[in-house]
Amino acid sequence: MSEGTGNQADDFDVDLLEEDYKNQKDALLFCIEVSPPMLEIVEAPSADLNDKPIQTCALRIGLRAAYSVLQQRIIATPSDALGILLFGTQETTDQTYENCLILVGLDVPNVRGIRRIRDLLEDDNEFEKVCKPCETMPPISTMLFCANQQFVSLKGTGYRFRRLFLLTNTDLPPANSPKDRIVARTRANDLFELGIQIEPFFLCSPARSFDATKFYEDILYPRPTTTALDSDSIPLRINMQPISTTESLIFESNMKARQVPRHAIFSIPMEIVSNGKLVIGVKAYVLYKHLSPLKTVYVYIDETGKSKIARSKAEEIVKSEVVSSEHENLNRPVFGNSLDSRSQITRGFAFGGGVLPFTDDELLKLRNIGDLGIRIIGFKPLTRLPLWTTSRPSYFLYPTEEEYVGSIRTFAALHQVLLQDQKYAVAWCKLTQRAHPMLCNIVAVDEQIELQAGREEQTQAPGLFLLRVPFSDDIRDPPGIIQNYLSASTPTVEKASLAISTLKMNLGFQHIRYPNPVVQWHYKVLQSKALEEELDISKPKDNSLPKYNSIASHSLEEVSHWKKRILKDLHKQRRPGRSRNQSNLDI
């Protein structure tokens, strides 16, 4: 028995790496505080921005965000382990960890656990029963110890990324004595030593501010780690900025953005000076990845009544043999023969109407074109960087000192020089041992920080982008110039410019507000099927559709004038013998 082989297995594509990194399992535990401040009623925007604000509390906002992550991950990455821990409740799961309620144990989530969270959010009586705060808040060290045991007792192996999301709006817990701080700091350090990264989500409101310097900045200070997030022993920056409860949608999108850790696609050397005189280490990351609906699989019902994925097996039976000799044709099929072993099967290439066989060693030598790495071969001004050279999505490069000491300083110097001189680098790249070499452009980008809802948010990290460009053999000639087309007059162009200027977005294009409607509808159907919910068969919501009423209120007059100018140009340039429909088609 063997796996099927073919040309697709021989032709290695770098994009396979982008699929491999998604198969790495992640363990994520939500630790949400239950206290009177977390239950204070606040106003928050609804999911539909056009509706009125809703009355909610910080605890509901945190649970709803965690529930949204669970819904998404159970379908997108079903092998991940997820859990929810409430601390500060009257109910206790284990007396060892007082006032800590394990709402969903840290494990691969199932439908039963997700239903419990859903019922908790929809049933007010159940919410008040479960989320009842205790009289005295337990020390933070108790919650961290309980979370530690959740990760230690996690079933299965292969969880490379393990993280803890901490949600609270109490900047100074009641147990804040010097002894409590030392114990909490020790428990947090134990988590970091196990490779568990703590990421806080601090909440604030107009009536309650949050100052991380009072307590949490001393407990959750950045620590170097080499096991969790590919950080190469560099202290990780922990985001201590609070998020207002009036921005619940921003909070939920922020949590979704941080739910996936930084997965490096590959780690290779970058040669800045030829002959290996100056080499640094870099890692590549995918910042944007197209998300598509899941592929269907065949399932069957086993003896216990459970649905399982049907696995296919292939058995190769060779019914033809290639025979070549000096007196016979290059290929002569001989049917009915079977080979004794796979060693008799060789690979080859179709050439000149025949087949050229190659041994495995010859194929290896044929593919081995240069060593692994990125080799800079020159620099060019940014003005000579054409947009059409980008043939595939880019990689984001960041330095690593796992193999080469001093890579960070050298990388920073190269990054600064490219920005100051307004240049980009041209490089020869071979990203993996089996990948084909390619030409790439290396473009430096500076850090971008924008003020969003009164908080400074990093919208672009500083670093280098690796843009894959085509070879001369890959470039095709553009289509010929279109003949006999109608041209717009200068007044028409001015009317068009005026109409377009009235349609500009005040805050610019915000991609976070435009989810993929096809993927969202696909997930909605799967979730309703798994949770046995009634499916709303109404048309999926598509935020990318134009807001016709808003467009009409802002630019109806300008668009009408523009249309009249087009009709005038059409009437003047219409040639004899052409119908109105043909002329409209030219436009």
Characterize the structure shown.
Helices cover 30% and strands 23% of the residues. It is an alpha+beta fold and 587 residues long. The chain has four domains: 24-262, Rossmann fold, CATH 3.40.50.410; 266-291 and 370-474, Ku70, Chain: A, Domain 2 (Beta Barrel); 299-367, no CATH class; 490-586, Ku70, Chain: A, domain 4 (Orthogonal Bundle). The strands form six sheets. Strands 9-10-16-21-18-17-15 form a seven-stranded mixed beta barrel. Strands 5-4-1-6-7-8 form a six-stranded mixed beta sheet, with helices on both faces. The chain is globular and about 80 Å long. The chain starts with 6 loop residues before the first helix and ends with a helix.
SSE inventory with pairings:
Elements (H helix, E strand, L loop, with lengths): L6 H4 L4 H6 L4 E9 L7 E4 L9 E4 H19 L4 E7 L12 E8 L3 H12 L1 H7 L9 H13 L6 E10 L9 H16 L2 E9 L11 H4 L23 E2 L3 H11 L5 E10 L4 E8 L13 E3 L5 E3 L37 E5 L2 E5 L1 H8 L5 E9 L13 E6 L6 H15 L1 E8 L7 E8 L2 E5 L2 E6 L2 E7 L20 H12 L15 H14 L17 H26 L6 H7 L1
Parallel strand pairs: 1-4, 1-6, 6-7, 7-8, 9-15
Antiparallel strand pairs: 2-3, 4-5, 9-10, 10-16, 11-12, 13-14, 15-17, 16-21, 17-18, 18-21, 19-20
Helix pairs in contact: 3-4, 3-9, 4-5, 6-7, 12-14
